[in-house]
Write a structure and sequence with these properties.
27 helices; 9% strand; Alpha-Beta Plaits; 9 strands; 625 residues; 54% helix
Length: 625
């Protein structure tokens, strides 16, 4: 163990932080590897060169540096991810998305404005992490609906939630930390709405930026899976649907081959008994038992089936599978193969030289061989106007199939077809939707009332999601993003190191010395900018705890009330927009938006500058400085 000048430890910590940020920005290694590497470097360095307290104990030992991985904030984030996945699997968020889309009346930017406004409003009173968890799938739905890359919308969603948290005392845990520090310094604590007015001014300008500027400077980035699942490729499948007795289509006409209840689905043929009805369907009125031959993307087809507007032709399903005695389907007939088990939808291509060439699905007996049901057929060469079950397959045809995960995986060994593995998508199940909604509402409600802590409520809710069947253990494990686990743990470790080595205090004191003799408004403005910059290097909580006492000291030195400087800490510590490490909501949108480290700097730095200008104009005026 080597003991030397503490200043060397501080500068070594600064160097490690800079190196870590440079590696994150370079993207030459995965974020998980960089994060674990940073933690290892801290562990080794402070084991060899410890920071000792008066009792001679190392305050930066392994236990202290690794505490971040058991931090309640991290556990809360992971539990909320699991709960959010349960909500997605239950189909509840699709309902919310449809409500927003209906309210937006098909206008993209009005719909985005509604989502951001709702996120801001809720974040003012509830923890913004679950707000972002709820609205990520809704933003994904909007991106799919309007064929927009999700990278244009995810960062604005995260930023909107953070902005909403600036407007009330309970809007963010950062606000509460500043308030607690003020109480410890024997100062009057904040009231619930003490900084709401300047907060609203910053939110208004920030919202304009998120609507008008951010989508233009963010990259249009989407994964291959997103493009396929969103139907962005325009791939149309020929599918065969049957109108059930209780379908909303009964009694409707289809002018131009379009049913209002089947958006994005074109009807090419209607089979009624032995009669084939072709477009333009003049005088046609849908009846129970009509078989619709339609063209649709997989998303539109999945949505129609999940809402039970129409169903897979029961005659086709019955002929294609071995019967199980006494089993009944959801629609009152024989058991359909996807009843009871978690289902996967995927695409397979008929291989060249396949024995399936020239045969129909009935002749092949596709389900009896694979235990998967064909939902649609895609062929690029020409438009097909015949029943799906009468189409003779050709090499290169793409079949949209559905089955349980095991049966889909078994298609890899089938020499007649080629499984397009990245097209596989787990389907939602709406059986447990009411239970999932109740679990989520109770967990968040109990946490909001303060009966139990947020981490206890969310962790219990995540377990309940698995117990009730909203998702299984494997799906819950997949909801936990390793990037979030490692980056939060590393960020907390770096923050602890900066705090204990005196690095953060050193930067703050330099500001005090540099601003001696300046007016209160100038000092307040520069102080805000300094805290905002550092909040992107350390966690927002660390910035709040470190800078609140310094803010009070600066206010006393310049002879003004402490409240405007404490408010500066509240707003500036929340301005962690330029890095995915700064705030948990940024990490939540990192994966869904397919972002790189630099994307947050590209969108976040202009927003920080803009909020700094608004703060410098509004807060001194509001507090009479």
């Amino acid at each position: 163990m080597i003991i030397f000048d503490p200043a060397i430890q501080m500068w070594a910590t600064f160097a490690l932080v800079v190196i870590a940020l440079a590696l994150y920005a370079s993207e030459k290694m995965p974020m998980e590897v960089i994060s674990i590497g940073v933690v290892c470097a801290l562990l080794v360095f402070f084991q060899l060169f410890p920071v000792l307290d008066p009792a001679g104990r190392n305050v930066l030992d392994a236990h202290r540096l690794l505490q971040g991985f058991a931090n309640p904030a991290l556990v809360t984030v992971l539990a909320l991810l699991v709960m959010g996945q349960g909500m997605v699997r239950a189909g509840l968020l699709d309902v919310l998305a449809r409500i927003v889309l209906r309210a937006g009346r098909g206008r993209l930017w009005f719909s985005i404005f509604l989502v951001l406004m709702v996120a801001i409003s809720i974040s003012a009173f509830l923890n913004n992490i679950p707000v972002v968890v709820i609205f990520i799938p809704i933003m994904q739905g909007l991106a799919m609906q309007f064929s927009m890359p999700p990278s244009k919308l995810m960062i604005p969603l995260s930023y909107a939630a953070v902005l909403g948290g600036m407007t009330t005392l309970v809007g963010s845990s950062t606000n509460l930390l500043v308030n607690s520090a003020m109480i410890e310094l024997d100062l009057r604590p904040f009231g619930f709405f003490d900084f709401t007015v300047p907060g609203i001014a910053m939110v208004a300008v920030g919202l304009l930026y998120l609507m008008l500027v951010a989508p233009r400077i963010l990259p249009g980035r989407a994964s291959m899976v997103d493009r396929i699942l969103a139907g962005g490729s325009g791939k149309q499948f020929i599918a065969q649907l049957t109108i059930a007795e209780d379908s909303t289509l009964v009694g409707m006409s289809a002018p131009g081959g379009l049913f209002p209840s089947l958006p994005d689905i074109t009807v090419r043929l209607v089979q009624r008994d032995e009669e084939a009805i072709l477009p333009p369907f003049e005088g046609f009125t849908a009846q129970p038992g009509d078989v619709l031959v339609v063209a649709a993307t997989r998303k539109a087809l999945t949505d129609a089936l999940s809402r039970k507007v129409a169903q897979i032709d029961p005659k086709y399903a019955k002929r294609e599978r071995p019967t199980r005695a006494g089993a009944k389907s959801r629609n009152g007939g024989d058991d359909l193969p996807w009843d009871g088990a978690a289902q996967v939808m995927a695409e397979v291509m008929v291989a060249p030289g396949s024995r399936y060439e020239g045969q129909t699905l009935r002749q092949i007996g596709f389900f009896s061989q694979t235990h998967c049901v064909v939902l649609g057929i895609q062929r690029r060469s020409r438009m097909i106007r015949t029943r799906m079950t009468e189409i003779r397959l050709e090499a290169g045809d793409v079949l949209l199939v559905q089955g349980d995960a095991h049966d889909i995986n078994q298609l890899k060994a089938n020499r007649e077809v080629v499984l397009i593995e990245w097209s596989a998508e787990e389907l939602q199940t709406q059986v447990s939707a009411p239970v999932a909604a109740l679990i989520f509402a109770v967990a968040i409600g109990i946490a909001a009332t303060g009966l139990v802590s947020l981490v206890v409520a969310t962790l219990t809710g995540a377990v309940a999601m698995v117990v009730c069947g909203a998702l299984n253990v494997r799906q819950a494990a997949r909801a936990v993003d390793p990037k979030i686990v490692t980056t939060i743990g590393a960020a907390l470790a770096m923050g602890v190191a900066l705090q204990e080595t005196g690095g953060a205090q050193h930067v703050a004191r330099l500001l005090v010395d540099a601003m001696r003799g300046a007016g209160p408004s100038v000092v307040l403005s520069v102080f805000f900018l300094t805290v905002a910059v550092l909040s992107n290097l350390v966690t927002t909580k660390t910035a709040a705890v470190l800078f609140t006492p310094i803010a009070i000291d600066i206010a006393r030195e310049v002879g003004v009330p402490a409240e405007p400087f404490a408010v500066a800490v509240v707003f500036a510590a929340n301005c962690s927009f330029a890095s995915p490490l700064g705030y948990q909501t940024n990490l939540l949108v990192l994966g869904p938006g397919h972002y790189r480290f630099i994307d947050f700097a590209r969108a976040g730095i202009p927003l920080i500058v803009l909020l700094w200008l608004v703060f410098s104009a509004v807060v001194p005026w509001w507090y009479g400085l």
